Amino acid sequence: MKLAKLAYKMCEHRLACSAARHIVRSVRRLGGLKSYRLPLEALALDAPVAAGLMRLWQRIHWSSGDGMMPADELLNIYRLAASWPGKGDIVELGSWVGLTTSYLATACEVRGEGRVWAVDTFEGTKEGGESYPSIERFDGSTLEAFRNQVAKAGVKKHVSEMVGYTTEMAKQYRGAPIRVLFIDADHSYEGVRADFETWWPHVSPGGLIIFHDYMMADVARFVDEAVGQDGRVTCLPGSVVPNVFAVTKNMVMSTSVSLLALGPERHFRPSERNDSPSQHKGAKCQ
């Protein structure tokens, strides 16, 4: 662990990060490190963005733990949050114990602006008003664990809590226009739709809306059928990793074109998702 922290400390610096990246590439060309993806994949990020992760990983472990988020998804969500253009805040709908919050707040730290609004009941609320069984490990509330995680990650000053149901908190939001909206709360079709519509007015033109758990049937159905036909959005960047799908709130053409620098628009095909295409029918983002 101490050796890993020393490596992260060294890789905060551009030259060390670049050297480590070349070493990893060379070793992989020779057949080594094939099974090790994270945290090595972070070396491919732009230097300031990678340095932010190296600082974070000196404080907390990079793996998911109780965060309910696989490491590859965390890395890609962080990359988008740190690199997406524009000014404004990040709103996270569904925060659990604050692992993803810490990554999003690190993105704000790297950019030198914005903050994360973490919106959750912190009671393990899920679809249909039920609760995750694991909430019992936290005596009915993850709020203390959330605060401890954010403090340990060193990003407390970049985080604001909004305790309550996501749709109700949308009415109380007083932050800056939203640059990145991360939807990861109620995964039912109606729940995702309600979160999308109630927070939509707060999202800046050109803002990014990320849907997590895209491999869940109702989330995919809402994105494919409703968002895919919504003239207010563009499916950019689209499928980020199989379980993460992101769209952009439309804006004037001249600025929209500049967003293409972040990656090509994805025209999603059912075969790209790791489940049966027959499970999710309807128009796709295109």
What's a concise summary of this model?
The chain is built from 10 helices and 7 strands. It is α/β, with parallel strands linked by helices and 286 residues long. It folds into 2 domains: 58 residues, no CATH class; 211 residues, Vaccinia Virus protein VP39 (Rossmann fold, 3-Layer(aba) Sandwich), CATH 3.40.50.150.
The level 1 CATH classification of the largest domain is Alpha Beta
CATH topology of the largest domain: the name is Rossmann fold
Tell me the name of the CATH homologous superfamily of the largest domain.
Vaccinia Virus protein VP39
The rounded Rg comes to 19 Å
Oligomeric state of this protein: single chain
Encode the helix/strand succession as letters.
Answer: HHHHEHEHEHEHEHEEH
> Fraction of residues in helices?
25-40%
CATH architecture group name of the largest domain: 3-Layer(aba) Sandwich
- Helix/strand class: alpha/beta
Q: Which strand order does the major sheet show?
A: 3-2-1-4-5-7-6
Task: Tell me the overall shape.
Answer: globular
How many beta strands in the DSSP annotation?
A: 7
The number of helical elements comes to 10
Number of discrete domains: 2
CA(first)-CA(last) distance: 45 Å
Low-confidence stretches: 253-283
Structure description:
With 286 residues, the protein is an alpha/beta fold. The chain has 2 domains: 1-58, no CATH class; 69-279, Vaccinia Virus protein VP39 (Rossmann fold, 3-Layer(aba) Sandwich). It has 10 helices and 7 strands. It has a 7-stranded mixed beta sheet, with helices on both faces. The longest helix has 16 residues, at 14-29. It is globular and about 50 Å long. It starts with a helix and ends in a 27-residue tail after the last helix.
